[in-house]
TrEMBL record:
Region span, Disordered: 29-61, 289-328, 486-505, 773-823
Superkingdom to which the source organism belongs: Eukaryota
Source taxonomy: Eukaryota, Viridiplantae, Streptophyta, Embryophyta, Tracheophyta
Biased composition (Basic and acidic residues): 39-48, 492-505
UniProt keyword terms in alphabetical order: ATP-binding, Chaperone, Nucleotide-binding, Signal
Biological source species: Brassica cretica
Protein name: Histidine kinase/HSP90-like ATPase domain-containing protein
The keyword Cell division appears for this protein: no
Listed PANTHER family: HEAT SHOCK PROTEIN 90 FAMILY MEMBER (PTHR11528)
Residue ranges of every copy of the Histidine kinase/HSP90-like ATPase domain listed in the record: 99-256
Signal peptide: 1-23
Length: 823
């Protein structure tokens, strides 16, 4: 044992003497070879692999030199941003992106779009993916704490030099103001596979950004900028080849050090990008236990002599075994490896029973990129089976986009994503849902649709019609269920049971909220979708004369209808307050009938398509054809007022009045003007006249015939009847009849063609009531004398003090005024 130990020590000493000399030789040979031209080593075996973010020693040297200066490379081609960058960045940082955390969400989202694009191209050309690790569709995040660099890499479609200049250099194609408009209106700025405005949120945390990108159709280029109005693009000859895809390097600001912590990045990915369809890996550290050799302490070794050879051998064997056990020990060591951060299975592939409410909410936020605290109002997760099999998740957003109806018929934007066998195809299929349901968000994953066809051919596929039909039915069922689960929507008979249960407090008022946000879409659906008109009509909500300010449905209205009532009564106008005072409601309210208030301009179009519901006809109470019970004296009244109605019609011949009739809808008002059943109402005329491109000549054909209805029980009408009977040619009576007609027009909601004539008649009426002669006119203005009174002089002095130059002008005017003698 002692002999072996001595030999080992001598061997170690000899090595110590030899190593310095060897090192000097190596150093000398390196110096001698400095003049030789050598190619920098490349890590070809790591192309596109999990080590794709690593660099060799020469790369490190070149990069550190560039980073230390943080300036654009001298050999790069320089460009200027198209918009005022300082102003733009100020808007992004201070207005649009107040929360800095979102930069990672935006970059990962862009990387996901790029991966979606290359995967779609691979459906028809598998060679675009390449081979080996390059074919892996994933996102990688790596940290360099020493240099304060955060890198995000994807193996997506990549960008050519032209793409880099176009997509990253054009922040706002039509100026900063247009950019802000697009962002506020949720414009489609994040084009698939390209960088949109979200890319610039990276400047919230970085003061210098490099974008290295390789497209299959171009060589590798690097884009760099400090967002100071300039950027540069150059051929990348110093970084490791990417194979395909894009790597973004963020040189973080000093105050953004928190984003160099692994725990922070894990939290952000979990919060914002958990449901991204591609694996997201982080180059993360972890502690592992390893066995390391332990240095032996020679002083503890004891030299012992053995009595015999056999005993020595046995002892040597035992010593060797003990030495083997004591040579290593377990210690904690930090190692780095790729850690998968989004291991959640695609939510639509799971059973709805397995998915929690929190998971549905998180998936909605990820899908819609709406990261507010609000939950979606409702969702529907279902599997459709039969000729066409697909899985779908539909959501009702908590709020409507502010421009939802501004470009309703011009926008092709769709909020549904189409997948085929888990492969993203497009989010531009507006054929999946009709326009009136375009506010819904979600996705559809079909196993039936073909993969190897173009999007244009896919749009014409017969299966899409079947999918659309089922989606509409499920969407309407989801909205109907939202109403049924709302305690405020429950009928009076069932209210007590719901109040006792107290389980639906969270859902209380949800349908009212939905109606306020998306009610117009339901009305547009009734106009556009004849096959689902009755289903949509059940979802209608409105206020009535008996709803006490709450919304009610057609089913609830019909349930409250009076015995013998055959029609559903409604009235249209600009506001509920105006309609409540309408003369058309007087007799209906007195008799206890309920009338629906329609105050939205689209309601006029709606009622042209919604003719009946549950065998009940709709009747506009401002039009002809209103039937309110039976009046036994109708025939007698018509005969008694026959002479007056005939005379009045002749007097209004110039006003295009079609007829004068006895009214069955008035109680306190002397007369109103109604329109024919199939013509425009007064409210519709007002709406059409306010159109920008309205044509008065064409509108004349659509105007309803006007009928003057008089109240035979009103004292004014009775007196007028007596006056006409005694002297039908009396001009004062004719003037009164004309004034009453014009007043009735205004009260009925019409716009007067000649307001001046109406005002003249009103003033004549006032003269008559004040017993002023009809021929009396206003006195002519008398010219004032120029002699200054004491008050005028005082005012003039005041003007001199305060008016300055104005007083001079006044004096000049006075000088030019002729005196009384001159006149």
């Amino acid at each position: 044992m002692r002999k072996r130990t001595s030999v080992s020590v001598l061997f170690l000493f000899s090595l110590l003497f030899l190593l310095p000399d060897q090192g000097r030789k190596l150093h000398a040979s390196a110096e001698d070879s400095t003049d030789e031209v050598t190619d920098p080593p490349k890590v070809e075996e790591k192309l596109g692999g999990h080590g794709g973010l690593s660099t060799d020693s020469d790369v490190v040297h070149r990069e550190s030199e560039s980073i230390s200066k943080k300036s654009l490379r001298s050999n790069a081609e320089k460009f200027e941003f198209q918009a005022e960058v300082s102003r733009l960045m100020d808007i992004i940082i201070n207005s649009l992106y107040s929360n800095k955390d979102i930069f990672l969400r935006e970059l990962i989202s862009n990387a996901s779009d790029a991966l979606d694009k290359i995967r779609f191209l691979a459906l028809t050309d598998k060679d675009v993916l390449g081979e080996g690790d390059t074919a892996k569709l994933e996102i990688q995040i790596k940290l360099d704490k020493a240099k304060k660099i955060l890198s995000i890499r994807d193996r997506g479609i990549g960008m050519t030099k032209e793409d880099l200049i176009k997509n990253l250099g054009t922040i706002a194609k039509s100026g900063t103001s247009a950019f802000v408009e697009k962002m506020q209106s949720s414009g489609d700025l994040n084009l698939i596979g390209q960088f949109g405005v979200g890319f610039y949120s990276a400047y919230l945390v970085a003061d210098y950004i490099e974008v290295i990108s390789k497209h299959n159709d171009d060589i590798q280029h690097v884009w760099e900028s400090k967002a100071d109005g300039k950027f540069a693009v150059s051929e990348d000859t110093w970084n490791e080849p990417l194979g395909r895809g894009t790597e973004i390097r963020l040189h973080l600001r000093d105050e953004a050090g928190e984003y160099l912590e692994e725990s922070k990045l894990k939290d952000l990915v979990k919060r914002y990008s958990e449901f991204i369809n591609f694996p997201i890996h982080l180059w993360a550290s972890k502690e592992v236990e390893t066995e390391v050799p332990v240095e032996e302490d020679e002083s503890t070794e004891e030299e012992t002599e053995t009595p015999s050879t056999e005993e020595e051998k046995e002892e040597d064997a035992e010593d060797e075994d003990s030495e083997k056990k004591q040579k290593t020990e377990k210690v904690k060591e930090t190692v780095y490896e790729w850690e998968l951060l989004n291991d959640v299975k695609a939510i639509w592939l799971r059973s709805p029973k397995e998915v929690t409410e929190e998971e549905y909410t998180k998936f909605y936020h990820s899908l819609s990129k709406d990261f507010s605290e609000e939950k979606p109002m409702a969702w529907s997760h279902f599997n459709a089976e039969g000729d066409v099999e697909f899985k779908a998740v539909l959501y009702v957003p908590p709020k409507a986009p502010h421009d939802l109806y501004e470009s309703y018929y011009n926008s092709n934007k769709a909020n549904l994503k189409l997948y085929v066998r888990r492969v993203f195809i497009s989010d531009e299929f507006d054929e999946l849902l009709p326009k009136y349901l375009s506010f819904l968000k979600g996705l559809v994953d079909s196993d039936t649709l073909p993969l190897n066809v173009s999007r244009e051919m896919l749009q014409q596929h017969s299966s899409l019609k079947t999918i659309k039909k089922k989606l509409i039915r499920k969407a309407l069922d989801m909205i109907r269920k939202l109403a049924e689960e709302d305690p405020d929507e429950v009928h009076d008979d069932d209210k007590k049971d719901v109040e006792k249960s107290g389980e639906n407090d969270e859902k209380k008022g949800q349908y009212t909220k939905f109606w306020n946000e998306f009610g117009k879409s339901i009305k547009l659906g009734i106009i556009e979708d004849a096959s689902n008109r009755n289903r949509l009509a059940k979802l209608l909500r409105f206020e009535t004369t008996k709803s006490d300010g709450k919304l009610t449905s057609l089913d609830q209205y019909i349930k409250r209808m009076k015995k013998g009532q055959k029609d559903v009564f409604y009235i249209t106008g600009s506001s509920k307050e105006q309609l409540e005072k309408s003369p058309f409601l007087e007799r209906l309210i007195k008799k206890g009938y309920e009338v629906i208030f329609f105050t939205d301009p689209v309601d006029e179009y709606l009622m042209q398509y919604l003719m009946d519901y549950e065998d009940k006809k709709f009747q506009n109470v401002s039009k002809e054809g209103l039937k309110v019970g039976k009046d036994s004296k109708v025939k007698e009244l018509k005969e008694a007022f026959k002479e007056l109605t005939k005379w009045w019609k002749e007097s209004l011949a110039s006003e295009n009045v079609d007829d004068v009739k006895i009214s069955n809808r008035l109680a306190d008002t002397p007369c109103v003007v109604v329109t024919s059943k199939f013509g425009w109402s007064a409210n519709m005329e007002r709406i059409m006249q306010s159109q920008t491109l309205s044509d008065a000549n064409k509108q004349a054909y659509m105007r309803g015939k006007r009928v003057l209805e008089i109240n035979p029980r009103h004292p004014i009408i009775k007196e007028l009847k007596e006056r006409v009977a005694s002297d039908p040619e009396d001009e004062s009576v004719k003037e009164t009849a004309q004034l009453m007609y014009q007043t009735a027009l205004i009260e009925s909601g019409f716009v007067l063609n000649d307001p001046k004539d109406f005002a003249w008649r009103i003033y004549n009426s006032v003269k008559s009531s004040l017993k002023i002669s009809p021929d009396a006119v206003a006195e002519e203005e008398v010219e004032a004398e120029e002699t200054e009174t004491s008050e005028d002089a005082t005012e003039a002095k005041s003007d001199d003090l305060h008016g300055g130059g104005l007083n001079i002008e006044a004096e000049q005017v006075e000088d030019e005024t002729p005196t009384k003698d001159e006149l």
